[in-house]
Every structure is written in C-alpha cells, then in structure tokens.
Amino acid sequence: MLSRFKACLVGAVVGDCIGSNFEGLLAVKLSDVVNSVLKLEECNQQAQEKEEAGPSPKYFYTDDTAMARSVAASLLDKKHFDARDMADRFATEYFNDPDRGYGGSVVTVFENLKDPDLIDVFRPASMQFGGRGSFGNGGAMRIAPAALFAFHDNDLAKLKVLVSSITRITHTHHLAINGAILQAFAVDQSLRQQQQPVDADEFIDSLISKMKPVEEESSAGKTPADNTREKKDGHPTPYCYKLLKIKELLKNRDLHVEDVVNELGNDVSAFGSVPAAVFSFLKAATQNIPELNGRNKFEQTVLYAIGLGGDTDTIATMAAAIAGALYGMEQIPKAWQIYCEGVEDAERAAEELFKLGSL
Description:
InterPro entries: ADP-ribosylglycohydrolase, Ribosyl_crysJ1, Ribosyl_crysJ1_sf
Organism: Candidula unifasciata
Oligomer: single chain
Largest sheet: none
Strand content: under 5%
Keywords: Chromosome, Cytoplasm, DNA damage, DNA repair, Hydrolase, Magnesium, Metal-binding, Mitochondrion, Nucleus
Distance between the termini: 16 Å
GO molecular function: metal ion binding; poly(ADP-ribose) glycohydrolase activity
Enzyme class: hydrolase
Number of helices: 19
C-alpha cells in the first residue's frame, strides 16, 4: 500500500510534467507522445552507460503539481483541513513562483487572498463569474493528496466534505466541486481495488453509486441557468451520465480519439476533463492499446490520456493519480522519475501521508 500511495502522487507529477509538453494542442499524435518519453528513456540509458547522472530534470511541473504540493503540505502540517493555512499556501506558492501556467481567474483569487483584511477565504472564489464561481478543473487536478489523507478513515462522507472544502478556496461552482469529488472517489476506489485486471463495469457502477447522491444533493435549488452547462440529454446527474457514457465507449472496439473527446471532453472545465481521466485509466486497465504495445498499464494510462489532446497536463495528472494508486511505484519508469521535476518531494509527501494512518 505504501508503494501505491507513493505512485499516486509521483504518478500525478510525471503525468503533469510529460503532459505539459502537449498542453493546448487540439490534436495530439500518440506517436509524438511516445517519442517524448523515449527521449527521457534514452537520456537515462546513455547516462547509465557512462556511469554518470544525466541532466535533471528535463520536464517541469505546472500549477497542477504546485497546488497539489500545497494541499499535501497543509494537511501534513495541520493534520486536518485548515482553510486559512491552505489558502495562504496557495497564494504564497503562486507569488513565489507564478510562471507555472496558472489560469487568469485563479490568479485573481490569489491576489484577493493576500488582502490582510480578508476574513472569509472562500469569498474571493465565490464572487467570480457573477457569483456562480469557476467550473474549472483546478480543484480536481490537485485533490489526490486529500484522498490519501482520508484513506485510513474509510469514510466517503468525510472525504466528500474535505474535497469540497479544499476546492471551494478557488472554485465554487458545483461542477468544479463535484468533479473534484469524483476524482477523489476514483483515487480512493483505485487504492482499495484488490483484483487485477479491473472490471470496468464494476468500477464505474461503484463510482455512480457514490456520485449519484452527491449530484442529487448539489442539484437541489439550482436555477435553470445553473443547469445550462452540464445539461446532457436532460440528465439530472451529469457526472453519472458521463460515467455511463464511459461504459458505452469501452464497449466500442472501433473507438477513435475524436469519439472520446466528443462525448467526454478534453478542456479545462472539470466536467470536460475528469471523466476523460477516468476513461483513460479504464481504457488502459481493461484493453490493449496497439500503439502502446510493450508499455505497462500505468504507462499506457498516461500516454493515452495525453493523446486525447486539450488540457493534456491536467487530464494526464488525474489519470496517473488513479492508475498509480492501483499499480504502485513498480510501474513508473525510472527515467520518468529521474527527469520529471518534483518526484522526490511527491514521494516524500506520500510516505508521510501513509504514516498518518498509523498515528
């Protein structure tokens, strides 16, 4: 289990680092993604042959990892969710290192969080977009440490509250919050998965059973305008709808990337990226991907996720967190670990989060 804790956070880092090389591209060739990691592996091989350390790192993390590090640090330091501490860490991290690809709306939140007279740290995010809040994937991309922190409690209600609280510091739209909850539930479920290969239908059915009451609760009292973005054939529980779509897509043996993107999305919204990450994990877990023959299941998850294009770093970091939680450190190539920035810190944080369970 310690190996799986480590691989969850380390996997998220390498997914972010490798995926960032393709961020924003609408069409990504899987062969180009494979070539990007071949460069890392060749560098590592050459360094080994010369018995020297290669230049490290070669690929750098983005705001996905920067914010996940703050989540982990705050939870480890306080041993519980402390809104002020976490908000301060988010803002401090940004102002110390702003060139990590942060979105403009969240930067506005950070600027407001630095106000010494601010009493309610949730207020800046709640005021965005006319009071509806951001529906971006910024909560989901950083949430893996929260799933590890809450793992030993084995209490989904507590995990839901924790995830919602962490997300609302920057994103208050229900789609952003529920997307982060889905991502955390998927990581938790993957950590608890005992058998391989994974049964995709069982995995999805379990997620639906957990997400349905979450979505039904959050839909109470919404206005028609609130429902506009997530409406899909009038489905009242949009994330559950997309989970059902994942089932359908996995049964299509003539599936093209365009089909996946059209149904699940690949953009910066939580609704348009978290389902794609879950799909990438299950696609690699349950099927052979011909273009990735010779790659293990973790590698296939990351490479396939990046191949969807769009918000590649975030989709890959989320998919990799789910996959790492199942497969463990043994499946993360050494070259990826050596040449991706932030791996050692992620491994150390995961070990400390694991130890919390024994306190």
